[in-house]
């Protein structure tokens, strides 16, 4: 499989690999989703919260390959600013756990799930054990390093489940 591999000097994210198909693979056209809230036909938008620039760039490229529009934040405070301004346009948030600032990714996940329950959340970390730590209900988890196919499947599960719930909510009115 053609893709990218990156190794950082940062011990926390050492040996991170991402198998991102090259442009022209046709993968992106498959992920346009119709939601129950009037956003049918538009590409999903993902907020990527990651303090490591290289990892953030690879994640953005992976999401764009999947057909997502992206917003980026390097810490929870930046993410909150974007969420406050654009929460109606954000379908999914991918967040690292360990980040600089007063709020880590797990706390950000709780905040987003409580304030904006229609935004799907996936927490990504190389040093976080969801069995030993708390995450919000209905929050996905992906351990670094992860495979592109695992990210794609988890996203389909998170957004697909939310779309089904939204469709049921609107059809029950």
Keywords for this entry:
Rossmann fold, two-stranded antiparallel ribbon, 173 residues, alpha/beta, 4 helices, 17% strand, single chain, disordered N terminus
Descriptive account of the structure:
This protein has 173 residues and is α/β, with parallel strands linked by helices. The chain has one domain (42-171): Response regulator (Rossmann fold). The protein is 34% helix and 17% strand. It is built from 4 helices and 7 strands. It has a 5-stranded parallel sheet with strand order 4-3-5-6-7, with helices on both faces. The protein is globular and about 35 Å long.
Would you summarize the structure shown here?
By secondary structure, the chain is of the alpha/beta class. It has helices at 53-65, 76-86, 105-115, 148-171; strands at residues 4-5, 17-18, 45-49, 69-73, 92-96, 120-125, 140-143. The chain has a single domain (42-171), classed as 3-Layer(aba) Sandwich (Rossmann fold), CATH 3.40.50.
